[in-house]
Amino acid sequence: MYEASSGAKINRQKSEILPTGKGRIADNEKNKYNLQVCENYILLLGVYVGKDKTVCDHLNWSGKVSKIKSLLNMWMQRQLTIQGRVNVISSLFMSRLWYSLFVTSMPDQVLRDIKTACVSFVWNNGAHLVKYNTIIDQKCNGGTIESKMYAFRLKFLARFLDKNYKVLWKSTFKYFISKILNMNLSEEILFMSLPENLKCIPNVYKEMFKGFDLLRDDIEFDLSTENVYDQPLFCNPNVLFDEKTVIWYDFINAGIVQVKDISYEVVESFFTRNGS
């Protein structure tokens, strides 16, 4: 099918195939197509994907962490200022992570290892003279390293909101968003302050929402009447009951999830004066 639709030929000596879901490849199909079958994971465009997330995370990140630590030790031998070390981290080492971060999330242990290695490098394995939260703050607040993880995620969130930016992953993103609390929402989800223990969306998307939450207080929405009607009723800081956000599953199960679901729109001149 691939050869017929694309006009390209499959290199059967190098190509591999990974069954997903409940799919299986019969022995006669293996002999017919002569492709190497991978049961657990496969290397796709430089990133390991597969059925076992733990194994894929190890393959995707362990080598990068080891390489970064090795290079940091090499640069440690040079006489650099603190700002010079920060520039080394920002320009030379963090760029090694962006490609993988585009398609997969960073495990917590990997994040801790990289953070420890970078902070130790900044202080030349000596005492930490400034608090970590100050170091990662903006320069105007005394910081020297700006956290780029959430900034990277927010860039893709902005592309998601751009209606002129048409790519396949936006449909995948919308699918997972629709599963959040079974509310079947789309872009309106950004009005909500989501629980941290969501299990229905991948960590990559959780990090997008987390980055947005960090900026929420500094963002002003220019709302039209339609935007107000689209506001979610639950987990929404703009919709409070007893000064608290609420989540009522009976309403959600009944399909009542947005302001427009409990509103009645009056259309002028729809009725005559005498009500007929």
Describe the structure.
With 276 residues, the chain is mainly α. The protein is 44% helix and 4% strand. The chain contains twelve helices and four strands, in the order αβαβββαααααααααα. The strands form two sheets. A two-stranded parallel sheet has the order 1-2. α3 (53-75) runs parallel beside α6. The longest helix is centred in the first third of the chain and has 23 residues, at 53-75. The radius of gyration is 25 Å and the shape is flat. It starts with a helix and ends in a 23-residue tail after the last helix.
The oligomeric state of the chains shown is single chain
The general outline is flat
Order of helices and strands: HEHEEEHHHHHHHHHH
Number of β-strand runs? 4
Helix content: 40-55%
SS field, number of helical segments:
12
Ends apart, CA distance between termini = 63 Å
Strand order of the largest sheet: 1-2
Q: Kindly state the mean pLDDT as a whole number? A: 79
As a percent range, the share of strand residues is under 5%
How is the main sheet built?
2 strands, parallel
Radius of gyration from the alpha-carbon trace, in angstroms: 25 Å
Give the class from helix and strand content and strand pairing.
mainly alpha
Low-confidence stretches are: 142-146
